[in-house]
Amino acid sequence: VEESVEEIEAELADAGVEVENRLDSPLGATGEAGAVYVRDPFGYRVELKARV
């Protein structure tokens, strides 16, 4: 995702999507970057991570 975590959260809030969790810098395949976690319509947990 190109936006910052704050921008991601704002867009989700505007769309009525509840953020389940937020981590400031989890380590992932591309390095450390902020991430938010939401549920998709089927109940699966989805990670939206800022670009490193």
TrEMBL record:
Q: Which Gene Ontology terms cover its molecular function?
A: lyase activity
Is the Lyase keyword given for this protein? yes
What SUPFAM superfamilies is this protein classified in?
A: Glyoxalase/Bleomycin resistance protein/Dihydroxybiphenyl dioxygenase
Lyase found in the keyword field: yes
VOC domain residues are: 1-51
Q: Which Gene3D superfamilies match?
A: 2,3-Dihydroxybiphenyl 1,2-Dioxygenase, domain 1
Keyword annotations for this protein, in alphabetical order, are: Lyase
InterPro entries (UniProt xref): Glyas_Bleomycin-R_OHBP_Dase, VOC_core
Q: Which domain of life is it from?
A: Archaea
Q: What is this protein called?
A: Lactoylglutathione lyase
Q: Which organism is it from?
A: Halorubrum ezzemoulense (Halorubrum chaoviator)
Q: What is the lineage of its organism?
A: Archaea, Methanobacteriati, Methanobacteriota, Stenosarchaea group, Halobacteria
